[in-house]
């Protein structure tokens, strides 16, 4: 049996609020003992409303924030989350919701892509340029974009650049934190299709953070639903969507607008027909 790319065991994150006069400090349990495994080439979607703990979980598994308790194992190697090695950090990359905020506005796109190679490898300048140029093409951009700045691109193009940068070090898995929620509907469909195509071509592994179950239905292999720090439901995409077990999942499902790829296309076509 192949070693899972990612194992999370009883992962917990607590925050202690400051107390005051005659008021004791309060412990907030943001993530409460989460467990899962993720196989190579698969997508786990972590779903829930704002404040459910999914972004806190994302920050822990991307090794940005240490866990209060529990274990993270990447490619079979346990991670010391308080003293993370450079080699271990290279194994996980994140794509944020706001592509413009995550790109240095003073760097040309070629430098944005080559920078991870400059800092973490011994590649020559020519080798870095060649790999950056190849990755730019893989995400659907053109060679002439190499020397442009982030402000010269649309939101969807900037998200393609962010995805390309995340892939430069060949990570074991990507964490995608609401990667399409800031984009127009038609652009959402393009980015979701790009992520699927890249996954099929390179065998990529994703943790996809979202509040939108209908987008998750298109991208995910497994779905994990969080509610106030707890995992209340976890199963295959088909099982969760066809027969949700927890009342919160059912409520979330009913409240989520239809924004899967097929629905996006229908809405864009209807809008175009009205304006014709």
Element layout with pairings:
Layout: E1 6-17, E2 26-38, E3 43-47, H1 54-61, E4 69-74, E5 77-78, H2 86-90, E6 92-95, H3 109-120, H4 125-138, H5 155-167, E7 173-177, H6 185-202, E8 206-210, H7 213-219, E9 222-227, E10 230-236, H8 237-242, H9 247-255, H10 261-275
Parallel strand pairs: 3-8, 3-9, 6-7, 7-8
Antiparallel strand pairs: 1-2, 1-4, 4-5, 9-10
Concise description?
The protein has 276 residues and is an alpha/beta fold. Helix content is 39%, strand content 24%. It is built from 10 helices and 10 strands.
Task: Give me some keywords for this one.
single chain; 10 helices; 10 strands; Rossmann fold; four-stranded antiparallel beta sheet; 276 residues
Could you tell me how far the N terminus lies from the C terminus, measured between alpha carbons in angstroms? 56 Å
In helices, the fraction of residues equals 25-40%
Query: In CATH terms, what is the architecture of one domain?
Result: 3-Layer(aba) Sandwich
The strand order across the widest sheet is: 6-7-8-3-9-10
Overall shape: it is: globular
Number of strands: 10
CATH C-level class of one domain: Alpha Beta
- The CATH topology of one domain corresponds to Rossmann fold
Which structural category do the helix and sheet elements fall into? alpha/beta
Biggest sheet layout: 6 strands, mixed
Low-pLDDT residue spans: none
Following the backbone from N to C, one meets helices and strands in this order, namely: EEEHEEHEHHHEHEHEEHHH
Percentage beta strand: 15-25%
CATH-assigned homologous superfamily of one domain: P-loop containing nucleotide triphosphate hydrolases
What radius of gyration results from the CA coordinates?
Answer: 20 Å
Number of helices: 10
Mean pLDDT: 89
